[in-house]
Amino acid sequence: MNFANYKWFIAAGGALGLLGAILVYLGNPGNMGVCAACFLRDTTGALGFHRAAVVQYVRPEIIGLIIGGFIASMFWTKEFAATTGSSPFTRFFLGAFAMIGCLVFLGCPWRAFLRLGGGDMTAIAGLLGLAAGVGVGIFFKKRGYALTEGERLPAAMGFLPTFIGVIMLLALVFGLKLGDNAPLFESAKGPGSQHAPIVASLVLSIIIGVLMQKSKFCSVGSFSRLFRKDFSMFSGIVSVIVFATIANIALGQYKFGFEAQPIAHNNYIWNFLGMVLAGLCFSLSEGCPGKHLVQMGAGNLSSVIFVIGMMAGAAVAHNFLLASSPSGITAAAPWAVVIGFIFAVYVGFFHKKVA
């Protein structure tokens, strides 16, 4: 084993596991130190695009990941480049259905790992679903599925995602008013009301973003390589779980079992299927949501389209009662997951390069 191929994946995963546990200790929801899907959902609610009052808060962690990607790509890896790719329509709806799958499961891939690191064994079904979804994505890629990447744009265009993130941060810090009496929406109770101090959230997520950009760690890439018998990136997933477990035990917030876990439900079939859908959409979009957020900071405007799609999916999920709760899935959720599968499979079969 060449340790050089592993060290940055282990470092990035370890930072996510350790700092994610610390953010829970500082006030973030249980086993939700950093969850790209949940925190995009909360931020979408803070902007008023959904009115689920318990999940509305501009999450500094989202902004920190973008800034971390910007800092690392500008000053460390020197890889910053304003780029865009093909098929914004496809990317947008892959993002939307990925979010719906995540909200059926109640978490993104990063949260699945952090849930396991907190002792939540209900996340195993989601982890298996993620692997299955990535496997289906690989099947389509072998049949010719592809998205065109890498069209260069003026560098100034690549600064815009980070600039918008900073504006959002200032809006949170200074309580931006959206109307005469309406600030950014902020939950008074529920998960949206549970958050670490802004400075801690921002600084720790910037560290995670920097290491993610340096390592190129990606949940989807981890399983893709694993299927090719390359264990290097998967070591990052193991690192997340191990460091989160150690930190949660040390902080007295580890709870092993399948029952009464924080912001989780026990419908294992839909935990699995929700993450199959999410994993497939992530695979077809070439990255998990954490990677897309970090890549936004590095100038990737295709990732911006995918993330906007995820935010739209969050709005739809909560406005149309598709998102799960600790009591389980909703009556409409299975229909949304089925529609998502139809869309993703259609795209997988027919979205191919034209000669």
Describe the structure.
- This protein is mainly α.
- It contains 15 helices and two strands.
- The chain has helices spanning 7-25, 36-46, 60-75, 88-105, 109-117, 123-142, 155-158, 160-174, 198-215, 219-227, 234-250, 268-284, 289-297, 301-319, 333-350; strands at residues 83-84, 151-152.
- It is globular and about 50 Å long.
- The model has no long low-confidence stretch (mean pLDDT 95).
- It has a two-stranded antiparallel ribbon.
Search tags:
single chain, 355 residues, mainly alpha, two-stranded antiparallel sheet, 2 strands, 62% helix, globular
Quickly give the structural class: mainly alpha
Provide the residue-averaged pLDDT: 95
- Overall 3D form: globular
* Cα distance spanning the termini: 40 Å
Helix count equals: 15
Strand order, sheet with most strands? 1-2
Radius of gyration: 19 Å
Instruction: Summarize the amount of helix as a percent range.
Output: 55-70%
- Let me know the number of strands: 2
* Main beta sheet strand tally, sense and closure: 2 strands, antiparallel
Please provide the ordered H/E string of secondary-structure elements.
HHHEHHHEHHHHHHHHH
Looking at the chains present, what oligomeric state does this protein adopt? single chain
| Unreliable segments of 5+ consecutive residues | none
Note the beta-strand portion.
under 5%
